[in-house]
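Dear colleague,

As promised, here are the two records you asked about, laid out in our usual form so they can be pasted straight into your sheet.

NAME FIELD: protein one
SEQUENCE, THEN STRUCTURE:
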Amino acid sequence: MTPLLESTPPPTLFRDIEVQGEEASSILRAQKDPIYGFNFGLSAYRGCSHGCAYCYVRDYPARDPKRGPGALHDPLEWGKWVAPKLNAPALLWAQRHRLHQQTVFLSSATDPYQPLEREFRLTRGCLEVLLQCPTTQVMVLTRSPLILQDVDLLKAFGPRLSVGLSIPTDDDTVRQVTEPPAPPIPSRWATLERLSKAGLHTGVAVAPLMPVHDLDAFIRRARASGATSAWVGGLHLLPKDPFLGTLAQHGWLHVLDPDYVTGIRDAFRHAFPRSERSSRTPKRGQGAHLQPPPPMVRQPGLFDAAV
């Protein structure tokens, strides 16, 4: 298991991001949603330096006592701060008894392979713990080529792990407006292709759906990348969301039209019929977009007693 830092470092700047390591009190968030097919969300970081302008967790709760109880980070601060959970792997190890025949998703509120992972390696540490839980299925969703540094570890999971690349648009000029610090779209396609060639089960997460200029070419590229599943998700805005101004400025308000979302989703379902069948009849531990395999056989003694 990846060793932890001996003490919490003071706030530092990492590429103009304020970094404040912390000791988390919990690491598994129960999310028993039959549609998406996972039981727990796992985030080794609070905050995300990708700073996507539309992210639904931009008003993340603050842990700064100067802000007062119940305070939230200003949405405009999103992408400017990250709090690595320094004890994440150890905490997950202590809670591993909860994971027998469960599915864990990394991660819903932050990218597990944001740039800080290169230095802190907390996602890798958590994956090393999950690798020792042989009845636990794992879904990983990222925008980052940094995941390629862990290909050998990911392959060690065999059929109980799947990887999704978030590719919300086919146009990198859209990405430059909506996700400026995040990796370019071409690098995500290249990452998806390399993961697929490595034998990993891969999928495309077109979420949140942004403008798509050539849908047919987008779908062809997804299939050519080796992806075997796809998922299209609509945009979820905050109250009085400043991102609405960005959409209006660029003439992209159509992404909020339910008919637009439905049309793109139907096209991907037709291109990936296996995903469509899964979304119609979701099963425990089997999601519509990444489709992990059925649960494994009985767990060995690791889970026989709570820790």
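NAME FIELD: protein two
SEQUENCE, THEN STRUCTURE:
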Amino acid sequence: MLLVGLTGSIGMGKSKSAELFEAEGLPVYDADASVHALYEKGGAAVALLSDFFPEAIKDGAVDRTILGQLVLNDSEKLQKLESIVHPLAGQMQKEFLELQEASGKQAVVLDIPLLLEKNAEGLVDVVVVVSTTPEVQKKRVLERPGMTEEKFLSILSKQMPDSEKREKADFVVDSTISEADAQRQIRDIIKKLDSFPARALAIRKE
């Protein structure tokens, strides 16, 4: 089973591209959505995080805004957070992959925002980067509720430059023109996936 790593900086159109891959029949694992599930009421991370970040627990769930403020500029707290959440998220991804492999899927998409920032491209067989122009990116992000230019620039500073991501990509989806155009590009990518050897899943099982 081929593992397709889908990534891209904020505002590039990655989430919509994930939907388009799914519309073409490829199952998608959403790393962000998995973490959200861990933080929800009854989620596996809530009780564990309440021991170290009690002020971030509200009504039986993790308040992501408060948690983010607690770990901001505190590397020790951030490491603690990651040591709790990453294994749980990793287990969810493992279960997703096992289910898809058992059902006979030939390829799946792993939607991982920080795939390249974490140097994790070796854990997938194919890297797809979603991109657009800086002008379109900025316009999209600043239209989000609660977003400011200062916050946008802060997020960008923590992400790998788009030009570097493009260089590391096997394929680039340009989301600038339209959803239909992006879907055409994604269909073309899917047609070319057969030329890539499926190795990453075997590596993960070793």
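A couple of things worth noting about protein two: Residues 32-104 form a domain with the Rossmann fold fold (CATH 3.40.50.300). Residues 75-102 form the longest helix (28 residues).

Best,
R.
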